[in-house]
Design a protein that fits this description.
The structure is a single chain. With 406 residues, the chain is mainly alpha-helical. It has one domain. Strands 1-2 form a two-stranded antiparallel ribbon. Strands 3-4 form a two-stranded antiparallel ribbon. β1 and β2 form a beta hairpin. α2 runs antiparallel to α24, α4 packs across α11 and α17 crosses α18. The longest helix is centred in the last third of the chain and has 31 residues. The two termini are 18 Å apart. 33% of the residues are buried.
């Protein structure tokens, strides 16, 4: 067996060249793709000796581009919040708030003067509960309406998107590109073998007539470089469908899948980034939180003013006239404190009302190809040369190994 191999090594080398070139094309493309996404954090000796995935390294810039696409092409903040009905929000929230207001009224009575509170006739106490609870729904409705009227002051879409795509959340950004470009990335990887194999046939023919070892690493460079370059070209070009020979239709692979990709992108953005939970947390705990809570407190004071005529005599009797204002402020602080937990109970309604997934999909699926390609192209554009160069370097090393072996 070994004798036969030694006697026929030149023939075996020629036959192995296309397969070796195919391997070089596949391997270099696969490594280049991995280097696009991983590692998440810098690996090596900072600042230059090492590597961090291109997307994690440029996460802030790419998240900013995602915001630009969302706000300029797909959604308008005012439009989305306009779909949220204050009356429906009030209806969803009011049962939980009513339970809390009843508890707060009891707490005030019990803590201030338990004996006197117990002496208040049940009918009077029920009247206070009823009067207070009658203000709950109008109060919530007014707060929601005021929030909608001032949404651009209390909600920062850019900050929310960047927060959910960078730092510890950079994996979501990776997932966005991987899910939207899944088929394209698979094409890049497997096409490396096919293109490499074709290059290898040419290389085998050259070797047959000119058997010089230095040609192997040289062709390795060419295979590694051009397989990456060709794959990227075929993904994004041509922008519009063209016909070859009058009947062969062809368009950039990514652009051809616009509707499919739009559906995936819309599901991810609506399900992981612009969720009602994330939006509400951004409003309640973001940089404008003070403004929203001031607005809530103002409306609670207004509601208390409306019920004061009925409740003030009883409360004054229990706690004393001088303490009434302090109790009033206490009630406001307690109600304000429970707002976040209560608001989060309406996530399902808000998700349905905003209908972000369908909105993003319907608009994204009809974007002009020039705009649509940017969704995935941003993952490569600036550092395309790095990926192609990595392919060339790895191709050289594999070709050099092949030359040394033969």
């Amino acid at each position: 067996m070994w004798q036969w191999i030694l006697e026929n090594k030149d023939m075996l080398l020629i036959f192995s060249i296309p397969f070796t070139s195919g391997f070089i094309g596949w391997f270099t493309n696969m490594v280049a793709l991995k280097m696009t996404f991983y590692p998440i954090k810098f690996w090596g000796i900072p600042p230059f000796l090492g590597w961090q995935g291109i997307i994690p390294r440029k996460s802030y810039k790419m998240a900013g581009k995602a915001v630009d696409m969302l706000t300029s092409k797909l959604v308008k903040v005012e439009e989305i919040f306009d779909r949220v009905e204050p009356k429906q929000m009030a209806s969803e929230m009011s049962p939980a708030v009513r339970d809390l207001t009843t508890d707060i009224v009891n707490e005030v009575g019990e803590s201030s003067n338990p004996q006197m509170w117990q002496l208040v006739p049940a009918a009077v106490r029920d009247g206070i509960y009823s009067r207070v609870n009658s203000e709950v729904e109008p109060l919530i409705e007014t707060v929601v309406k005021d929030s909608k009227d001032n949404i651009m002051e209390i909600f920062d879409l850019k900050q929310l998107v960047i927060k959910n795509l960078t730092g510890d959340n950079v994996r979501v950004l990776n997932e966005m590109f991987q899910r939207c470009g899944e088929k394209e990335f698979k094409f890049i990887e497997i096409s490396g073998f096919y293109f490499g194999f074709l290059f290898g046939i040419v290389q085998a023919a050259i070797w047959y007539f000119y058997a010089q070892a230095w040609t192997l690493p040289l062709v390795g460079v060419l295979v590694g470089y051009y397989t990456n370059w060709l794959a990227l070209k075929m993904i994004f070009r041509p922008l519009y469908e063209k016909k070859y020979l009058g009947f062969i239709k062809y368009q950039g692979l990514f652009l051809k899948r616009q509707k499919e990709v739009s559906k995936e992108y819309a599901a991810l953005v609506a399900g992981k980034i612009l969720t009602a939970k994330n939006i509400l947390e951004a409003i309640l705990y973001g940089k404008t939180a003070e403004s929203i809570f001031t607005m809530i407190q103002k409306n609670i004071y207004g509601a208390l003013d409306r019920i004061e005529g009925f409740a003030r005599p009883v409360v004054s009797l229990i706690v004393g006239t001088n303490e009434y204002d302090a109790i009033r402020n206490y009630i406001v602080s307690k109600l304000t404190a429970v707002v976040p937990a209560t608001v989060m109970k309406v996530e399902n309604y808000m998700d349905q009302a905003m209908d972000l997934e369908n909105t993003i999909y319907s608009r994204m699926s009809v974007l002009p190809p020039e705009d649509f390609e940017n969704l995935l192209r941003t993952a490569f554009q600036e550092d395309e040369w790095i990926l192609i160069s990595v392919g060339a370097v790895l191709g050289f090393l594999v070709g050099l190994t092949q030359a040394l072996l033969f």
